[in-house]
Known about the structure:
Elements lengths: L1 E5 L7 H9 L5 H22 L12 E6 L4 E6 L6 H7 L8 H8 L5 H8 L10 E9 L8 E5 L4 E6 L6 E8 L9 H11 L7 E14 L5 E11 L16 H11 L8 E7 L5 E7 L6 H4 L2 E6 L2 E4 L14 E5 L9 H6 L1 H24 L1 H21 L1 H7 L5 E2 L5 E2 L1 H8 L10 E6 L6 H9 L4 E3 L5 H11 L3 E5 L5 H4 L12 H15 L4 E6 L8 E4 L2 H11 L5 H4 L5 E6 L3 H8 L3 H18 L5 H14 L1
Parallel strand pairs: 2-8, 12-14, 17-18, 17-19, 20-22
Antiparallel strand pairs: 1-6, 2-3, 3-7, 4-5, 4-7, 5-6, 8-9, 10-11, 11-14, 12-13, 15-16, 21-22
Family: Belongs to the heat shock protein 90 family.
Protein name: Chaperone protein HtpG
InterPro entries: HATPase_C_sf, HATPase_dom, Heat_shock_protein_90_CS, HSP90_C, Hsp90_fam, Hsp90_N, Ribosomal_Su5_D2-typ_SF
Amino acid sequence: MQEKGTISIHTENIFPIIKKFLYSDHEIFLRELVSNAVDATQKIKRLASLGQYNGELGDLRVEVAFDADKKTITISDNGLGMTADEIKKYINQIAFSGATEFMEKFKEAKDANEIIGRFGLGFYSAFMVADKVEIQTLSYQDGAEPAYWVCDGSTEFEIGEGTLAERGTEITLHVNQEGEEFLSEHRLQEILDKYCKFLPVPIKFGTKTQEEEDGVDEEGKPKYISVAVDNIINDTNPIWTKAPSELKDEDYLNFYKELYPFSEEPLFWIHLNVDYPFNLTGVLYFPKLKNDFEVQKNKIKLFSRQVFITDEVKDIVPEFLMLLHGVIDSPDIPLNVSRSFLQADSNVKKINSYITKKVADKLAELFKSDRKAYEEKWSDIGVFVKYGMITEEKFYDKAKDFVLLTSTTKENFTLEEYKEKVAPVQTDKDDRLVYIYTNDPSKQDAFIQSANKKGYDVLLMDTPIDTHFISQLEQKLEKTSLKRVDADVADKLINKGEAPESVLTEEQVTKVKSIFDKAINKPAFKVELESLNPDELPVTVTMDEFMRRMKDMAAMGGGMGFYGNMPDNYKVVVNGNHKLISRILGDENEEVQAQLAKQAFDLALLSQGLLKGAELTEFVNRSVNLI
């Protein structure tokens, strides 16, 4: 039997189009062909289990081989095979409705997966790297004859009698000049490791050497020899395909090392396993966080029936969980998935919600079952929890019971616990709770100590997400506001409608203000006199809470660019009741007055890390002279 024909695709430009549009992703040809071979192998196994095939299955596997001299790559399997009629049906007819629609829709396309997935071009991705493709195949059906198909990259093909003696299919790619990079053991191994590492059927790629025991030597010690064995590149039963009851912690940790060989051990993990209303399996790990979050993103791998698709999963996994590591596998997501598909598909939206719920449930379980262990992990998982509360309303509703607020004394509190702790002391005259926090305890230590002297507790809010988390708490918590510890002097942080009486007359207040204005001589620093506790510092430099918070958000790219461009302005609070002020007023020497005022101001700057460069040197020299 010999037959020639034309591939039914309604245009002669299909192969140039494939090469043009898919060139940036041309390595996926191997994924497509190996996946097809795996499907054929699994189908014959399924037919045998149903009693529809009674022959010997043999050692079911897929093999990938190449010949650099002949410039060929071969993918073979012992699966279903095809008859000549099936080749005509499945190979010679590409399912799309017309060249006009194709060209119009994809003239600007850059997403190879979208083109392949929409038009069923998986097999034809072979022509991205080959000038000629041959198929030798023998169907499993009784009495079937081997068949042969060849196409040289035009719309013409030949079909005839094949030479294959065993059931299965062998596809040979005659690699073109542009595809010669794939005629390399290293390059092919790289692609197989990327896409086929966990396929459910063994994938053989050449051989490898391993040490095997070969008797004993004269001293009775075992001898070893190097032998060549099949190089099976994949684990056909990765842990996410197993039930959690079958696995130990060691299994999860070993799998994590396999995925991320240079990473520290994860904190804990979540095993995903659901079959309704969608199919989803996987394992997600909580890693130990580093400062550079961007480096840790895109570490979740998306699979479809154990075939790797992508590690860009932001449409499947909620944004706040992009720092998680691990794998997700769903047959409901097509192999050739596109961004537009992910954004529109209802199953993807359900998967997103499910993962959010599973993470929340896992964290709640950890908190309730072993709070001490949970608190020990809080410095790593706090970013996940806070980011999730900010970005996902449903997650906030669950997480409000296990989010922790950490005090500068290293104590941890739930939101409810903290409210009970500080309410007696930190409620203002309008019956509002005031939470005080620091984002830099070493730099703001003087302010923290002043707050502690008044019995105030100070929270530690020093992660990149805390600026936004603080704003959310103010929106969510009833009659509660948050102030940074250096937003004002301790006496003014919580307005209780009380203030010490001033020991200065109005004339003295005016004089002191004039002395400090002249000594400081900086427009960005506005001097104000306050009647404070005599034990408080003589001078304190603060920035308005609202302005400082807007600037913090601008620095983080929070959409507050206007405030970020505004110059810094500070309030210089002079404690009129401090004995230093009385000393300044009691000295008639204006130079000494200015020197003392400048020294007190610089000390305030120094306590906040605002004194630098030449001004710091000048302060040190002046201090030495005063001594």
